[in-house]
Specification:
Low-confidence stretches: 326-345
Number of helices: 11
Helix content: 25-40%
Mean pLDDT: 85
Strand content: 15-25%
Number of strands: 14
Shape: elongated
Order of helices and strands: EHEHEHEEHEEHEHHEHEEEEEHHH
């Protein structure tokens, strides 16, 4: 069921939601969170489709905030809010409200969104494109427990990573980080099969792909070894090569789907490592709303430090350093001195 509202208010939108639920025979609110998507008209369809797919796993009230550009000075002084309310089959397993803001109300989107948040439910804000450099201090980001950006959509993703590190606040995360969860799990599992000391690492992937830098920073931060970033034609991440004192360990994915894991003294193995859709990435991020300390540690390592020699300190055993990162749902491990911080993802 769809209900269109023109030049409306948040109060009228809430009434339309109640009316829609009654009309489709579901008067109760069975949502587990509120997902706020801040985007433009061009990217709204793809973002909403991904959120709708993710709602099968996480039933949520989805608020899509679209800030429309006013072409004339007169239009910019005239505020207007249009809304499209979707419930039932048109909204997946949740509720969807598409908000189009015009004029001065564009600068006060939080005042429109706040009355529409589900009471006593967590709030997640996602910027598919044009995310603020400091999400926690954004008016909409301040409403959320979890703030999701995507550095891959930035014009200068590497510079964006540096800015994210400077402004990181617990609760921030990035879909470029989420994309490498299978890689981190596979590398941790590979090192768990051997008793070797890693001496150097090379991460290979396409240019302007921040997931490659994030994976390299994670490995450098966890293993305390030099990590070199090299370029390939893609797609995405293509290979990780770890030199150890008992032979190389290589995870190579040339086609974006099937990878080959090679460990010295063992037969090569084919492993599924396909590139995931945005809906899968969002669904993964919604599974846990606590701060991601592993992401924070990798991000703060810094892109400019990649390739530097290790600091000379005794690094933890390779398998132990990555073991806590073997699962996307793993809880943070306890800290132990003098080893580095335990990973959380």
């Amino acid at each position: 069921m769809k209900i269109d509202l023109t030049d409306t208010t948040a109060s009228k939108i809430n009434k339309a939601l109640v009316q829609g639920r009654r009309a489709v025979g579901t008067p109760a609110v069975g949502m587990v969170l509120t997902l706020v998507i801040v985007t433009d008209e061009e990217n709204a369809y793809d973002a909403l489709r991904a959120a709708s797919d993710a709602s099968r796993e996480h039933p949520s009230r989805t608020l899509v905030v679209i800030k429309r550009v006013s072409r004339s000075p007169r239009d910019r002084t005239q505020s207007r809010l249009d809304a499209e309310v979707r419930v039932g089959a048109d909204a997946g397993t949740g509720e969807t409200v598409i908000l189009r803001l015009y004029g001065e109300v564009v600068d006060h989107a939080q005042s429109v969104v706040l009355p529409l948040l589900l009471p006593d439910a967590p709030v997640v804000v996602w910027w598919p494109v044009n995310s603020p450099i400091d999400p926690a201090n954004d008016p909409l980001g301040a409403l959320a427990q979890r703030r999701v950006t995507d550095t891959y959509a930035a014009e200068q993703p590497i510079e964006e990573l540096t800015g994210r590190a400077a402004t990181y606040t617990p609760g921030d995360t990035d879909l470029s980080w989420t994309r490498i969860t299978p890689w981190r799990s596979m590398l941790a599992a590979a090192l768990d099969q051997v008793s070797c000391k890693v001496t150097s690492v090379e991460v290979e992937g396409e240019e302007f792909n921040p997931s490659c830098e994030l994976l390299a920073m994670w490995l450098a931060d966890r293993l305390d070894v030099p990590v070199r970033r090299s370029q390939s034609s893609g797609p995405g991440l293509t290979a990780v090569r770890m030199e150890t004192d008992c032979g190389p360990i290589v995870l190579d994915r040339a086609d974006g789907s099937l990878a080959t894991l090679s460990i010295q003294g063992q037969p090569d193995r084919a492993v599924a490592l396909k590139r995931r859709e945005t809906a899968e990435l969002i669904a993964e991020e919604l599974r846990r709303l606590d701060p991601d300390d592993t992401y924070a540690s990798a991000l703060r390592f810094g892109v400019d430090r990649l390739g530097e020699p290790s600091n000379g300190k005794a690094a933890p055993e390779a398998s132990a350093a990555l073991a806590a990162d073997g699962s996307a749902d793993a809880k943070p491990a306890a800290k132990k001195a003098p080893a580095k911080k335990a990973a959380a993802k």
